[in-house]
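[User]
Um, tokens okay?
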Amino acid sequence: MLPARFLRPRTLVRHAASMSTSFPKHFLSTDQLNAEQFQGLLDTAAAFKKAKINTDLLVGETLLMIFQKRSTRTRISTEIGMQRLGGRALFLSSDDIQLGVNESLKDSAHVMSRFGSALLARVYGHSSVMELAKEASVPVINALSDKYHPLQALADYLTIQEHFGSAKGLTMCWVGDGNNVLHDYMLAAPLVGANIRIATPDGYGPAPDVVVKAQKLAKAAGTSVFLTSDPVEAVKGANVIATDTWVSMGQEEESKKRVDDFDGYQVTNKMLEHAASDHIFLHCLPRHKEEVDDEVFYGKRSKVWDEAENRMWTVMAVLAKLLEKK
């Protein structure tokens, strides 16, 4: 029989995240999950947060964290989250290991699989995380690639669930770049029964294949995906308005052009006059003033600090599910 200290966390994971179909070995993008699995992770995270879980559920497990791209929230949330679950996390920057440079991705994946229980990778190209998943014998978690950012989508939708009780029937709105965060955002919307309205400047829209996937999921769920280049049109009636940086890491040389191209996309209270009266604002951080003004960012409808905290509870749910002891 399990010691008493194990029972409650295990019950939370298995009850809240019970799945009718097999959960994927790796967590690389939101479209790997069905609605039940995505909601299960949200419910597990919510239960962990409510209970302020500190447990030895993952005692003896080690997470190897590969960071080609730096991050405040990803590192802090994952290291502390793994600690709260009883395991340990080892941070590996590009100065510690030169992933795919001095040693191939394939060889790195095989070596690290012998030491860690799981790999978490924050990389530039999505092909890197795909190759790690192909070659690793342990679970791989995508902590950000140029195409997807599934952990951020989980944190955002947990924040929405906390505020509204459920995302079902809500209208989400994205104003800004058609980037990796948006990709998972729009793939997740149909899974929770939400509509999504997206405004991006011409030439900065989401990847066509992701749009097709999102539209297919929306059709099956009875929800909608609306794309436009007019931010005011996108904001109309929205319950949740989200944006992100216009210049991602690695795009610094494009900074001036991007800021010019995104003129008129700054989220302001004037823009939000067109949103639903109960709307909230989200930004995954770090934030720059050209993306959203101070009045909105620090305003009473902003949930950015809840959103940042929820990065920890949601990555804990993912870790607990991928590494749960049968």
Q: What stands out?
A: The first helix runs from residue 4 to 16.
